[in-house]
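Title: Comparing notes on inverse folding

I've been comparing how different people in this forum approach sequence design from structure. To keep things fair, I'm posting one structure and asking everyone to reply with a full sequence. Here's the target:
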């Protein structure tokens, strides 16, 4: 359903500093996304979101952080206020 309809901002409650923290977490590398898909209420696939480089740099790059577990890489902690924007980009199901 996430693939067809996109993410819903209300699915990410909370505020920064709380748990949950009001952010959607994504793996920048495919390996991290695959690891996320094995845990919790995720679907049996991963969704790749294609964001033009300039728009990524302007809106999303600031939310990059080192992935704190394995595999190593980068995760993004996107605030729920950006979910509607994120839903506007091309999504590919893998």
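Reply #1:
Here's my take.
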């Amino acid at each position: 359903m996430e693939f067809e309809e996109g993410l819903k901002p209300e699915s990410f409650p909370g505020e920064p500093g709380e748990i949950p923290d009001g952010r959607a977490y994504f793996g920048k590398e495919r390996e991290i996304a695959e690891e996320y898909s094995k845990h919790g209420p995720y679907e049996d696939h991963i969704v790749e979101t294609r964001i033009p480089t300039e728009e990524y740099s302007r809106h999303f790059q600031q939310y990059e952080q080192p992935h704190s577990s394995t595999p190593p890489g980068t995760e993004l902690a996107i605030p729920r206020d950006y979910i509607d924007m994120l839903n506007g980009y091309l999504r590919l199901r893998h």
